[in-house]
Specification:
two-stranded antiparallel ribbon, 2 domains, 13 helices, mainly alpha, about 325 residues, about 5% strand
Length: about 325
């Protein structure tokens, strides 16, 4: 079979960047068939070696039945070569196909089969899969629909991969989306400390949005020379931001009459300020300044705190996404 023909029949690889495979997907790929093919090559090599000691002259060439068997198996080899992205190895397949038309000797056939086997085993060795624990598999970026032919399987995006804190947080905080996606990737890869790092960045987006909702977009700062300047909220330290937000909240609450409405507002804002300070002291300073490392259980614990905080802040901001630096619509 020529290269063009094999590419037409098996035109695409099943291996794609960051594509997640389950054990079921591997079974559907045909791992059993591929293993059986390698065993057949071993058998054929042993068979041709043994036949060389019994046959000579024209008899030492592949007979019609043997040629038919090799040509049939060659189609399977070509399929796996394409799906394993070994396009350069298809040339070796073509050479074997041409050789079969010219009645090769048993030794020539064995040599070409061994070459193809080495290409396959090298490719299998370099295709690395990482086991993802079931507890964090919900954050994997995609999964396949359970159909028989994996080459035709549709990729279904897992919502938690792009929205680990849910659709409400995803919608309200446009600028936190990339960090949220990185959190999912880090949890899947077992990079728990990196996940906590990105969680603190997500919290920072939430705090900035809270400040904007309170009318805090720029903060006055006095330099050592006594010069006053306005600093964008995204360039202010957490300590300074906490003080400014608390001041805004106190002034807002002071304008409310005593009663249930004010009590609810006080409880709400007090909880946010408490969480904000807690993030800084418990995790943010430690992870940002390389003073701590975190395991999977600790990362999940931080995740739950961040999710609660971000959903609470989302209650106060406009549901329409907007970029950092611009007020809610």
């Amino acid at each position: 079979m020529r290269l063009a023909q094999s590419q037409e029949l098996y035109s695409s690889s099943v291996f794609e960047a960051q594509r997640v495979w389950s054990l079921f997907d591997m079974m559907r790929y045909g791992v059993h068939d591929l293993h059986a093919l390698l065993l057949w090559i071993d058998h054929m090599c042993n068979y041709t070696y043994g036949q060389e000691n019994q046959r000579s002259g024209v008899d030492a060439q592949l007979n019609a039945g043997e040629t038919l068997t090799v040509r049939s198996q060659l189609r399977c080899i070509q399929k796996h070569m394409v799906q394993l992205e070994l396009h350069e190895a298809l040339g070796a397949c073509n050479e074997l196909g041409i050789s079969l038309e010219q009645h090769p000797s048993l030794g020539e056939c064995r040599g070409q089969l061994l070459s193809l086997r080495r290409m396959l085993t090298d490719a299998l060795t370099s295709r690395i899969f990482m086991y993802i624990p079931q507890a964090v598999s919900k954050y994997a970026n995609s999964q396949q629909t359970p159909i028989t032919d994996i080459r035709k399987a549709d990729l279904v995006t897992n919502p938690l991969a792009g929205q680990p804190f849910g659709i409400k947080v995803f919608t309200a905080f446009k600028d936190a989306r990339k960090d949220a996606q990185q959190i999912a990737l880090c949890l899947v890869a077992g990079a728990s400390t990196a996940a906590v790092f990105h969680m603190m960045r997500v919290v920072e987006h939430g705090v900035r949005e809270l400040g904007r909702e309170l009318g805090l977009r720029k903060i006055k700062e006095v330099s050592k020379t006594g010069k006053v300047k306005l600093v964008p909220i995204e360039n202010v330290t957490w300590d300074r931001l906490h003080v400014q937000i608390r001041g805004k909240i106190d002034r807002r609450l002071s304008k409310l009459r005593p009663g249930p409405a004010k009590d609810r507002k006080e409880a709400y804002y007090s909880s946010l300020l408490h969480d904000f300070q807690g993030f800084k002291e418990a995790w943010r300073n430690h992870v940002m300044h390389s003073r701590a490392h975190y395991g999977p259980d600790e990362a999940e614990n931080v995740m739950s705190h961040v999710e609660r905080f971000m959903k609470a802040v989302a209650e106060t901001v406009d549901a329409q996404p907007h970029s950092v630096g611009s007020p809610p619509a």
